[in-house]
Amino acid sequence: MQVKLFYTLALWAPILVSAQLSGSVGPLVDFKTKAKNKTCDITDYGAVADGKTDVGPAILDAWGNCSTGGLIYVPPGTYSLATDLELKHGESTAFQLDGVLARGHEGSYQLILVRNCHDCEFFSGNSQGVVQGYGYEYLQDGNYGERLFRFQDVSDFSVHGFAAIDSPAYYLVFDTVSNGEIYNLLVRGIADLGMTDAFDIWGQNVWVHDIEVTNGDECVTVKSPASDFLIENIYCNLSGGTAIGSLGTGTNISNIHYRNLYMNQADACYLKTHNGDGIVKNIVWENVIVHGGPYPLAVNEAWGKDVGSTGVQVQNLTFRDVPCYDITLDNVNLWTEDGDYVEWSCANAYGSGACLQEAKDTGDLATYTTAVTVTATPYVQP
């Protein structure tokens, strides 16, 4: 079944940026002020843009001198990164990547770890910054390597303006972050393999926008615990799409607003759990277009391995301005375990079967809701 979704894109006033956020996001001090205070150019610490010499020690030395109140600068050029970086305990700092950092070794967990940082910014000033993972060296043999990025326990931050290319595994993981803005990023890699999530995010009060992803797994995905996220203007190609999950025990997710999503062979509105426990509530998917995605709108509490708990409570999901057409429901039978009737409900979806309405003009689809009461199972055992 091929499902096509459409939406009408509108211009949004700045006030709508706060649609699901709980407060301000981003660094408290702009990077120009930090640069005026102190700038640490990695070439002053021994970095050579020859694509061979390990730039890791130079970056760590520059970080040591500028991680409080300053800016670390990577000039244009191609640098080999053969050291797993741990950039920690930054306070009012910025990292400006204007060159290419190319993975130069077989690391263990992540190529770049930024942790325990407050009021920080990781960005490209010339929009030409790249982290190149050479993931094909692993993936072509069915193996996986290290992640490209992990931002852990980071607050009042922004990440923007560069490209993450061909990761050996996950691309960018945001672990327990708050008051952040993640935007104007490009992720591109092999498009037919799992375990290559582009953005996995959990934390509080995060704005994600203007992202383009081509990969083999999740595009922009919310993990638990998470609250007060606004995720908008997302373009996903050949990927798992914009999902919530997978979720296990202790799930706690609320106030997540996805809007203005464009999916090319990707899934837009997908919530998946392992039959864990906890709660997911107050979720909105708004203004969506999907071409060829297998699960355009889905809630699945039996995804993957069953962890054997009571099931995640799912409350107050809203799919807004997502009319869809060319849907065929053939031999789809929904019934109850303990009653003598069920109600089938169809809203804003067009096609044939069950309670769907036929689309007479796909260029002018009206919203509707149809309910059908079924008093006997229509299923016939083959």
TrEMBL record:
Subcellular location: Secreted
Gene Ontology CC, one term: extracellular region
InterPro entries: Glyco_hydro_28 (IPR000743), Pectin_lyas_fold (IPR012334), Pectin_lyase_fold/virulence (IPR011050), RHGA/B-epi-like_pectate_lyase (IPR024535)
Residue intervals of the Rhamnogalacturonase A/B/Epimerase-like pectate lyase domain: 42-88
Classification via Gene3D superfamilies: Single-stranded right-handed beta-helix, Pectin lyase-like (2.160.20.10)
Known function: Pectinolytic enzymes consist of four classes of enzymes: pectine lyase, polygalacturonase, pectin methylesterase and rhamnogalacturonase. Hydrolyzes alpha-D-galacturonopyranosyl-(1,2)-alpha-L-rhamnopyranosyl linkages in the backbone of the hairy regions of pectins.
Name of the protein in its database record: Unnamed protein product
Species assigned in the record: Aspergillus oryzae
